[in-house]
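# nightly structure sweep
# worker-07 picked up a monomer target from the shared queue
# config: single-sequence mode, recycle default, output format = structure tokens
# input follows
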Amino acid sequence: MNKLQVTNIHKSFHDHDVLKGVSFSADKGEVLALMGSSGSGKSTLLRCINLLTVPDDGSIQIDEQKILFNAAERSTLSNSQIARLRKKIGMVFQQFNLWAHMTVLENLIEAPIHVLKQNKQQTIEQAKILLQKVGLSDKLNKYPVQLSGGQQQRAAIARALMMKPEIMLFDEPTSALDPEMVGEVLSVMQQLATEGMTMIISTHELGFARRVANRCIFLNEGMIIEQGATQDMFANPQTARFRKFLEAMQH
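# output follows
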């Protein structure tokens, strides 16, 4: 099933309201593009979905597991609840976040062996298959510093996939890359989309969003002010703010 339901998520930092009641859903196999200018709350929203940041209010549900966030519920949020939700969600960051002291292969097998208690030899075989999928078969014994930015990001995607997530979150996955490396990362993500992976992608790559995302969500100052089918939104923006955003991005 793997339906994600995000309801009325609020988050503040030091009296600054970053998210002001965000609600949306994603069905299994759907690709959502999360758009908005810097500071609109995209990264915070993604971090709230996998509980790297705990929301102040609202709820998140994947399949039958629902977690409520308010002052009373938040104090009873257990590590096992967080772990259960995180097991279903993979996340890829702007800055790759690979462990510098480990080879690419070691980066991939660390969590499945220690968190999921998987057999080491089977995990290594699984890692080799994923590295082939992202075009890094020849890099498994290299360290992150020996890879280009695009290669590091592809390794980070493979590492997230090692945990067999039901949903993948991408936080501006190409923003730290040189332009010529952007395509190699986007092609891996496009392949995941065609294979039916549920994905929520914060991105400024309008062409990619247009090609790959079923739906778009446009955030402005912590609120969703427009959402809908990607082609409809690009062809016929309903709000002046989203229209202005598209114009600015296309220039």
